[in-house]
Amino acid sequence: NAGVTQTPKFRILKIGQSMTLQCTQDMNHNYMYWYRQDPGMGLKLIYYSVGAGITDKGEVPNGYNVSRSTTEDFPLRLELAAPSQTSVYFCASSYRQGTETQYFGPGTRLLVL
Amino acid sequence: AQKVTQAQTEISVVEKEDVTLDCVYETRDTTYYLFWYKQPPSGELVFLIRRNSFDEQNEISGRYSWNFQKSTSSFNFTITASQVVDSAVYFCALSTSGGSNYKLTFGKGTLLTVNP
Predict the structure, then answer these.
(1) pLDDT tens for residues A57-87?
(2) Nearest Cβ partner of A99 from B9, B44, B101?
């Protein structure tokens, strides 16, 4: 099993550009999550999904969108990138609800200039 | 509301020293789960342990041990005979079975540096 994979590893965006961060898991997990990690601030939940076709907002959803058309994939869309979105983004998955162990992807480092 | 506090921002030790990373949590739920993750300099998040609120037994895994005390709402992590490879940021996290059961609340992390 590859676990949770994310692409790209690193990206530089200009202000106002858009992009999609890809996340795929091969563990047949129902729950998937997107977090952002800012220096010294731990991880904050952006969006999560409890299964294909079902998504919901986390703590910091503004400026992002998600979709979940399959169990395996959970892409995160940034529209109109802003410098405040400079961060490291982690995708995670768990078999069931959040009390189960969440397994994380390697992260995507995004720089918005 | 859930909250996790890791009061130690940075710790520096010399190899072979023992080191304890503190974690204090807050929740009103009676059923909850506590986690520790390791983030080495390469950046990935590595799962270390998951413990539920009904199991207060301490756990040992090699050089790692965890001390869970509900009375003080703490879930501390000790590395015995630290090694340079233990250098990383360590995160404590909390999840509950209540209304926000999707959510993993992280502390801000403790940067551990083990010097040779």
Answers:
(1) 998 999 999 999 999 999 999 989 999 999 9
(2) B101
